[in-house]
Write a structure and sequence with these properties.
Keywords: Membrane, Transmembrane, Transmembrane helix
Membrane topology: Single-pass membrane protein
Subcellular location: Membrane
Helix content: 10-25%
InterPro entries: LEA_2, NDR1-like
Distance between the termini: 96 Å
Main location: membrane
Largest sheet: 11 strands, antiparallel
Radius of gyration: 36 Å
Strand content: over 45%
């Protein structure tokens, strides 16, 4: 026969028994959710930027600017020779570029450096100042000074051809300006070829006086030998 007291104790212990723990809920913040929303945000951002660039390229149809060498002017010239008959030339030359912008928007160029190369090696440097090309401009003149220091002319003139082939090259940072907005920076790679008859240069340099002008007739035509490459 069951004891009523023990039955009451059993019911009481059952009544006050702790309930079972519910299943663990997923935390509100997790690494997976963070990565998911981050990737989604990045994809949306890339899509928006791509759409804007597509619209800009579609409506503006940007074209490469045009540069040509316009004039050269010798500001200073010095010829030095060693006892071993090695001739060194030092000079400061003013270089004028003519810039043309066929685009519907203006282009702003940052200060930069271009290099005077011979045989792929730099022999001089020129600093191009900041300048602005208005839309559809054709006659923007850019002035810079090319500095040549102790260039070994004897080593250059070892061949029979008196004409030396030089290269003017460098990267110029630029931005398209549209409706008071400045678009991302691009780089314009300038590459010009110059042919110089060193015998004529030396003959002028020996009798050099300040502000003497080296006319374009002293050099073979080179205004059409400039090329540009645009990249980001």
């Amino acid at each position: 026969m069951d004891d009523p007291q023990s039955s009451d104790q059993f019911e009481s212990s059952k009544k006050y028994q702790s309930p079972e723990c519910p299943a663990d809920r997923a935390p509100l913040f997790s690494l997976e959710r963070f990565c998911y929303f981050l990737c989604l945000f990045l994809l949306i951002g890339v899509a928006v930027v791509g759409a804007i660039l597509f619209l800009v390229l579609f409506f503006l149809k940007p074209r490469k600017p045009v540069f040509s060498l316009q004039a050269l002017r010798v500001n200073s010239f010095a010829v030095n020779s060693t006892p071993t008959s090695i001739v060194y030339v030092s000079s400061v030359v003013s270089v004028a570029f003519l810039a043309e912008n066929p685009n519907k928007v203006g282009i702003k160029y940052s200060p930069s450096e271009i290099y005077f190369l011979y045989g792929g090696l730099p022999v001089g440097v020129a600093r191009v100042p900041e300048f602005y090309q208005p839309a559809h401009s054709r006659n923007v003149s850019v002035q810079t000074e090319l500095v040549l220091q102790n260039v070994n002319l004897t080593r250059m003139a070892t061949g029979l051809d008196p004409v030396l082939e030089f290269q003017v090259a460098g990267d110029i940072r630029a931005r398209f300006c549209f409706l008071r907005l400045t678009l991302p920076v691009i780089k314009v790679a300038l590459d010009c070829q110059i042919d110089v008859d060193y015998r004529r240069v030396l003959s002028k340099g020996m009798n050099f006086t300040r502000d003497h002008k080296a006319l374009l007739s002293a050099f073979p035509p080179f205004s059409k030998k400039c090329s540009l490459a645009v990249y980001i």
